[in-house]
Amino acid sequence: MENDRSTAKESPKRSWLVVYTKSKFEKKADHLLRLQGIESFCPVIKTRRKWADRMKTVELPLFTSYIFVYVSYQEHLRVLQTAGIITFVNYCGKPAVVPESDVERIRTLIQIHPDIEAVSINTLTQGTPVTINDGILFELNGEVLEVHGKHVLVMIKQLDCALIATVKVEKKHVLLRKPVNCLL
What is the DSSP string of 55-120? Predict the structure, then answer.
């Protein structure tokens, strides 16, 4: 029985949590956490940016001001003491736990779809071109017709006909691929 207790103390239960960072500090905070031996995940996407004299490929965080950390309760203070970390994202007064399957899904999505982006549901407006990234309508291009709470009415133009589907979106964000130019 004592062995069970000592094992529990040596390997405390860890969970994926979300931390809020200073603006444009996601990658630096991720690096600083890793230097401390804390497992963290800052999903990044590669995008091409144009400067006055050249084009350059840069890595940008998928989620602005958020990174994931895999920590136990005992490691919370170390995370909060890391430069650039502001606070844990809370739900009902406790740090919000993200299922490991969701973190793995994000890892897979950014590997499969290098042009993926996170779009706040509040930014979806009538006429926004979108690509569905999940479900039976996966990878179909469409245009937002209406937004009703957490439901988005999307018109999908394929095969010279229009399919209209109501897509229920996630609580905070919907992951969408960049719009296709042919819809504009």
Answer: EEEEEEESSTTEEEEEE-GGGHHHHHTSTTEEEE-EETTEEPEE-HHHHHHHHHHHHH-TTEEEEE
- pLDDT tens, position by position, 126-156: 777 777 666 656 666 777 776 666 566 666 5
Q: Return the CATH number of 2-114, one of 2.60.120.10, 3.40.640.10, 3.40.50.300, 3.30.70.940.
A: 3.30.70.940
Domain with CATH 3.30.70.940 in the chain: 2-114
Question: Which CATH number describes the domain made up of 118-183?
Answer: 2.30.30.30
- Is the pTM higher than 0.85? no
148 contact partners, CB below 8 Å, separation of at least 6 = none
Neighbours of 118 (CB within 10 A): 17
